[in-house]
Design goal:
The structure is a homodimer. By secondary structure, the first copy, chain A, is mostly helical. The first copy, chain A, has two domains: 2-97, no CATH class; 124-499, Neurolysin, domain 3, CATH 1.10.1370.30. Helices cover 64% and strands 3% of the residues of chain A. Chain A has 20 helices and three strands. Chain A has helices at 2-31, 38-56, 59-74, 80-97, 100-123, 126-145, 155-161, 167-189, 205-219, 256-273, 290-304, 308-321, 330-337, 354-370, 378-390, 416-435, 439-444, 449-458, 468-476, 483-497, and strands spanning 228-230, 236-240, 243-248. In chain A, strands 1-3-2 form a three-stranded mixed beta sheet. In chain A, a hairpin with a 2-residue loop joins strand 2 and strand 3. In chain A, helix 11 (290-304) crosses helix 16 and helix 14 (354-370) packs antiparallel against helix 15. Chain A is globular. Chain A starts with a helix and ends with a helix. The interface between A and B is large, with 40 and 40 residues.
């Protein structure tokens, strides 16, 4: 058995090295690559992905997994080997179920669709994009059909990003959440609006970056095993074990963009940097799911980074870096950075409204996959939901249905993980508050090491060893629940807006 | 035949994509990678190289080459297909002749040796390094033996870097060259020394970089298909067709380091950027040899960049950037940057002495490979030759036999290409001077496009389609000759030192 396990690990190591190399190429593409490199880079990435897929789905991997299946049952279920075998068997079953011709067609179609989407968004013209979206929806239905039987055709898509979760349970969570979030936003809208005018001004880009670096260093981001660069859209990427890089975007006329995006990405990066070294070069050196990953970024960005104790500590430092803020008191600053204002654009929305953007997309993509909504009807359906949930009407497709790249990129089933991350962040925070002594006091002292180490112990070090639901139960002693999140929102905004 | 050719091209494209991906990983390692990424990066690079080697030496590639051999004879010998088949057949025969166990042992041994060499050089202690060098010399002899029969055991090593050249002909060239270069240096030493004191001072790093960028932009370096970064040792790397990056090192107390290294690397980069797009994703998108590559860097750095017409144009601009130079006249500046001063260190040596450093290494490594010199005797032999050729005695091993990484990295046969590049640069320059109207006048006007396009037409666009000797004959109508180089040195230094 040992020999077979070693052989399997060697094969998997090679696959992961190819994924790691692709991550280096992808990071470079978004931060460094000159425009002339695009064509060759696309070929290189195509080759790496093709080889990784071919090696992973090889008959030898399948035979090794089969012959190790009984062995797996004898192992300690928490051991690395047992978890690796479980994850590999699951991924192998999924990947080998989809014909490689379909995989290639989805890749080709989405590459072309992304290109057209960019132009369509620039021209704010959905009709340019709709034939490509129609093709992609049809391909997604074909993809989903590979996993029959299922309770719902959206289940296999969701499962790619949130292993073990199904459409019905997400729907239930969201349906419980939506009316209460809508109600909160209506109540907030009835109160006098707050000002975040102090965020506009002239803020030196270098100083913004330095302040953000100082903050995430205190969180525990390890610069020996990472770096920060600038890119058009902020992201975190693991280029190999011990090399977890983040990027940010700096707006010299606006103070919050770089700062909160740095905290957000650092949250993702702490997860990746906190994984146990024994998981290196295996698919276990990854997040448990996109939702769990997002919980970490949201926890550091919002629950920590937009809290009053946090700014009790950091506001004096921020004023040192930017003396034009010297007249702002802690309360006004805290209220300003937590201003609630429904927005047409998901990525610009605040904590209280964000999930509604997600639910809108979740409902629409389910309807597309079910076939109960045609692509041609999508803009109208989008605008109607936007009006119902957020009281806003997009003036054009660019600020409506064309705003996100996800569908063009073939990422159906991805959106819900953003909202699940928000819910989970609150649930995790509730546990941390119970288990750690005076967490708000620690934060007010600029002390984050206990929180970080607790997260590492409970979540980070395990990587993808556990299904998200198992991880949550181990950690919280309960299933994923929206209650901590609703309580968090109501408490926070109740106080801020005097509800 | 077409079908077989297409299949072969597809296989080779994949191999080249893996090499390209490895180039991205290597560039990143030297410019961006945080220290924590080293272990995973080594694994990723190992996997990419192993797969590239395995795919290239596969029986399928061999069978395709065999079955296309007759077809190749019917093709226009200048066509891409004919050249590709010739280069592939040659590389396949070489690569499959060496057992993969030996390849792996050389890789392992040199990785360890490089590590020890760094420590040995820091401690200036050759005895630390000598057991590793002994092992490497022995492995190099084993490697060479794979190519028996040969006229000389050094021939197969040389051939890896300078295809088609043999030990005897290099020895003949060097033996004709050495006494005349030694004589020139002795004559120079008898004249009053020149001053380059103006190169020392306080030179803002950013301004140095900007000045260098301005110069190489005028050469024609295409920033849409490249970029410049800083690294410990300057280098040029092609990360993929259309993505040719250079690096430099800036010394804020010394003006010439970044400037001349930028021109040197831009010379390499113009070669890579000038290759025909039809060669993309094949091994033909490469230099004809290391010597030809070095000829391009030396031509731009030395023959152009250290010429009087060049500085007639650029010195006023340099004085604008660095007003502390305002008192220096063109003649004094020109003589200063061409000061000849024998140095213990190859990479710090001037145009007149550089080749002697190379010949010394060439003679020693031949003796090691022949077995006529023991590793234990190497430092003494080094010092004796240093004294004979350059009149200098190293004070310790660090500034003597331990100064270069090449032997530790297993690069035997590499050194001569540096000197061949110098010779070739002068020979190419002579042709350019004959074929282009008033080249010195163009340079004095800051005009480089005719020269660059001529080089592209004669050399760059062909990539590795021709053997170096064929390329030289097509271009110069003659074989490689040291005469243009000797004439260039004698004319230039005769005038500068008043010989």
């Amino acid at each position: 058995m040992n020999e077979k396990m070693n052989r399997l690990r060697r094969l998997i190591n090679q696959v992961q090295d190819l994924h790691g190399a692709a991550a280096v190429l992808g990071w470079d593409q978004q931060t460094c690559m000159p425009p002339g490199g695009a064509a060759a880079r696309a070929e290189q990435l195509g080759t790496l992905q093709e080889l990784a897929h071919k090696f992973f789905t090889s008959p030898e991997v399948g035979a090794l997994l089969d012959s190790l299946a009984d062995h797996a049952k004898e192992l300690d279920p928490d051991s690395d080997d047992a978890c690796l075998l479980r994850v590999l068997a699951r991924n192998y079953a999924k990947k080998t179920r989809v014909p490689s011709s379909l995989v290639a067609e989805i890749a080709r179609t989405s590459a072309a669709a992304e290109h057209v989407w960019e132009q369509a968004r620039a021209a704010s013209d959905f009709t340019m994009f709709s034939p490509h979206l129609e093709k992609l929806v049809s391909l997604m239905r074909d993809y989903s059909a590979c996993f029959k039987p299922f309770a719902h055709p959206y289940d296999p898509l969701l499962d790619d990003y949130e292993s073990g979760l199904n459409t019905e349970s997400v729907r239930k969570v969201f349906e419980g959440l939506r009316p209460r979030q809508v109600e909160l936003i209506r109540k907030i809208a009835s109160r006098p609006q707050l000002s975040d005018e102090f965020m506009n001004g002239d803020f030196d880009a270098q100083k913004q970056l330095e302040f953000g670096s100082m903050v995430i260093s205190k969180f525990g981001y390890d610069w020996q095993r990472g770096r920060q660069d600038r890119s058009a859209h902020p992201f975190t990427s693991t280029l190999g074990f011990g090399d977890v890089r983040i990027t940010t975007r700096v707006m010299p006329r606006r103070l919050d963009s770089a700062l909160f995006s740095s905290m957000h990405e650092a949250g993702h990066a702490l997860y990746e940097q906190g994984m146990s070294q024994s998981l290196m070069r295996t698919p276990l050196a990854d997040g448990a799911s996109l939702g769990v990953h997002e919980s970490q970024s949201r926890l550091w960005e919002n629950i920590v980074g937009r809290s009053k104790p946090f700014w009790k500590h950091f506001l004096p430092h921020l004023k040192e870096a930017f003396p034009q803020l010297s007249g702002i008191g802690l309360d006004d600053f805290y209220r300003g950075i937590n201003k609630v204002q429904p927005s047409l654009i998901r990525v610009e929305s605040d904590e209280a409204t964000y999930n509604l953007h997600v639910m809108l997309r979740f409902e629409l993509e389910i309807a597309l996959i079910e076939g109960t909504l045609n692509v041609a009807e999508l803009p109208e359906a989008w605008n109607a939901k936007m009006s119902e949930y957020l009281g806003l009407e997009p003036g054009n497709d660019a600020e409506g249905v064309l705003q996100d790249v996800h569908w063009a990129a073939g990422l159906f089933g991805y959106f819900p993980t953003y909202a699940l991350g928000n819910l989970l962040a609150s649930q995790i925070w509730q546990c941390a508050g119970r288990e750690l002594h005076n967490l708000p006091g620690q934060i007010a002292n600029g002390e984050f090491s206990e929180l970080r180490e607790w997260l590492r112990e409970k979540i980070h070090r395990h990587g993808a060893k556990y299904e998200p639901s198992v991880l949550v139960r181990r950690l919280a002693g309960a299933d994923l629940s929206p209650e901590p999140y609703l309580r968090y929102l109501n408490d926070k905004y109740g106080e801020i807006y005097g509800l």
